[in-house]
Amino acid sequence: MTLKHLHIRDEGDGRPLVFLHGWTCPGVFFDPQVSALKGHARCIVPDLPGHGRSEDCRPLTIEATADAVQAYLEEKDLTDVVLCGWSMGALVAYSVIERHGADRISSVIAVDMSPKVLNDPGWSNGTLSGLTVGENDHFITTIAKDWHRLPDRIARRLFARGQEPEPKSFAMAKSEIALADPVLLTDMWMSLTALDFRKLLQRFPVPLHLAAGGKSQLYGPGVHAWYQENVPDFHLTIFENSGHAPHLEEPEKFNGLLQQLIGAEAVA
Question: Could you tell me the pTM of the whole model?
């Protein structure tokens, strides 16, 4: 099933660069990248279902979201596309390739994300908090009920551990997260935490670049090592002063990585 009416911001000219945002964090979280790169690339930024101006798009699943992204690539006849997926958005990028192949995709950038969020006896590279199926089932029942407390908590976990986040970025994150509908977010959370892309990544058909936060509160070195040991064409960039959101915490370095991958000239 393909989603209709997904809100998509499409600016600039050049090689297509598709930004896929994280859970609770709509497309505006990529504004620093669009501002820096729209003179060098065609920046495509959807608000994914349950978020921003696509808030009530249904169905609220990663698979349907991937179908909608692929439909846009086909509608605009886009090729040589770089997919940049942050957190949940990385799973959307993986799902695009799993469901539709990579004929239109040249490479993928995953931003601080594991191929499988939940931990189990055979997998310890999910969230650093050790989230398991049982704990996640409980969290799912509390998202809407406890929403008044969650935007601050979620926003803080985006940034580097052990230090105060930059005030302007933190305020933006908290305010944007607070605008979301927790009922819709619950469905997207259920979908993303049910997925496991390890088998796909072991036969991934395009280069995969992981932009990992060296001080991430969500994922650690075990994830980086798994990618290195299992993905055929893998490249790792550590953002030593970042947590889960290196595109916000070290935007110049992050934009430089994107610029390198799209083959653009230096960003001023």
Answer: 0.96
